[in-house]
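Incident log, entry 3
Record: Multiple sugar transport system substrate-binding protein (430 residues)
Problem: checksum mismatch between cached and fresh output.
Input:
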Amino acid sequence: MFKKMVWSLTLILALGMAIIPAFAAPVTIQYAFWGNPTAIGVEKDIIDEFEKTHPNIKVTPVAIAYNDYHQKILTLMAGGQAPDVMRIDSYFFSDFMRSKALKDITKFIKRDKVNLDAYYPSGLIDSMYKGRYYGLPWGTAPIFMVLNNKMFQDAGLAMPSFDWTWDEFVKYCKALSKDQGAGRQYGFGDGFGAGGGSFSSILPFVWINGGDLFDKSRTKFTLDQPASTKQIQAVADLIKQGVFAEPSQLTSAEVVNRWQVNNKIAMRLGSALELLSLQQFDNFAFSIYPFPSKGKYTKTTIVKSNTVGISSSSKNVDAAWEFLKFLRAPGQSGETLYMKAKRVPPSVDDPELWKLYADPNKYPKNIAESAKAIAGVKHSHTLPLRPGWMEVQGALVPEFQKVFSGQITAQAAMKGIAPRIKEILNRTAK
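Fresh output:
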């Protein structure tokens, strides 16, 4: 009997040791994100709170300015020094997956019963690759149409409805444009990739006419098709007429913010981060809307997310997963702390989180209701992201600049660049 008890105890201890996660002994993991390295703000609050409840896991923050972030992460990966947990912008996600940068976390999600239904669907899409999960969503939000309330009021124009059309949008733009030297103002302004920004802001203008960047399989370039070139040319014509601002003048989000606050542009596209920037200007009244629609084409508003995943080379996967859950899983403290800091809007549909994020004393008013309506099924459209996305952007932006400056037609530009895009798509598909 005694020997049997000893054997049983030995077996229990062995099994216990087998299921004790690797972080039972003190471990240190790295967490990479974009931000100001000298003022990481809420990220430090999240790390501090996590370490209180997980004393054997220490988290070292790796903060890198956004413009350098993804290249530096790739460099760290190439040198075998990838951070254990890393945030990835969805623009780069497919290219990172092509490099096998992130670990498949599907089994962890199922094991720990992470409530995926709580996330906005578009956020989950941007965290999946070939039907598997490689991260949890961060910063899921629309790219809003942002309206300057004062410019509408000064022009004697009523604010549009959420179901406004392309024709109504163009009429508003023309009514809000003035050619008066120093007092010149425009109905709409966007850089369309000028100054290194994303070119994706051109896509709603294309979607509204049934066009797209790629076909449904994302293997064929389709901006050279009539449905697409017609709308790109329409944008160029509105720029030439002085209804839209010259994209070459709007080389950064900061410039666009300044122009809108100073009543030079009535409407622009803006992310949740830009909304926070606009709120810093006292008494600047603005509203958020979906992108206009045209007939059956109502899904014209970009909704994008980012993801936070675990490095495929991490030697502390269990500890990294515990931190990732704390950071991004529904019901965990990370999302609550983000909302209190008003860093990004909620990635989960939780009224209590929206209460923390929204400030009823600041514009835009009713942000929770408006943002959820804009991000809903009727208006939202995810980006056709795929490997080679940033290389495609690098090839297309100079062509857009030629079109918008009147050097070449949209049809000629897209036809001319099509072979180059085809080569990128074929090469990056491997």
